[in-house]
Amino acid sequence: MEEIIEVYSPEEMTELGKKMGEEAKHGDVFALNGDLGVGKTVFSKGMAKGLGIEDIIVSPTFTIVCEYNKGRLPFYHFDVYRIEEPDEMLEVGFDEYIRGDGVSLIEWADNIKELLPKYSTNITIEKDYEKGTDYRKVIISK
C-alpha cells in the first residue's frame, strides 16, 4: 500500500510527522529516506511532538541514536548517514531498539535496509523545484 502526500511548507511537514506520531504504536519502525535538506529532521521533530515529547529534537548524525523517554511512548531517533557497514548498528543495540516498546525512526534508512524489519513503514521525501522551493512529495509505503 502506497500513499503520496504533498506538503508545501516546513510547518506542513511538521504536522505530517506529528499526525504519524499520534497514530504510532509501540514497536513501529519508520524508515525515512531523502536527499540532504529535504526535511527528514523536520518530519522527525513533528513525530516527536505527536508522541508527546517536548525535548529539543536534533538529528543524531554523530551519535547514531537519540533516545527520548518522556512521551506517550519512547522515541528512538536514528541517523545512519555516516554508517559505512550495517553491522555497525549492532554495536548500538539496534535490534533491542526496534524490538522494544518504543517507536523507532531511522533517517537515511537505505544505508541499513538489510537490517530493517519487513513491517517497517517506508517514508521517502522528494523535492520538486517546479512546484516551489518548499514543496515536498512524501511517499509512504508499508
Question: Key terms for this structure?
Answer:
Rossmann fold; seven-stranded mixed β-sheet; 24% helix; 7 strands; 142 residues; alpha/beta
Q: Can you walk me through this structure?
A:
- By secondary structure, the protein is an alpha/beta fold.
- It has a single domain, classed as P-loop containing nucleotide triphosphate hydrolases (Rossmann fold), CATH 3.40.50.
- It is built from 4 helices and 7 strands, in the order βαβαββααβββ.
- It has helices at residues 10-23, 40-50, 88-91, 94-98; strands at residues 2-7, 29-33, 65-68, 75-79, 103-107, 121-127, 136-141.
- A 7-stranded mixed β-sheet has the order 1-7-6-2-5-4-3, with helices on one face.
Mind sketching the topology for me?
Layout: E1 2-7, H1 10-23, E2 29-33, H2 40-50, E3 65-68, E4 75-79, H3 88-91, H4 94-98, E5 103-107, E6 121-127, E7 136-141
Parallel strand pairs: 2-5, 2-6, 4-5
Antiparallel strand pairs: 1-7, 3-4, 6-7
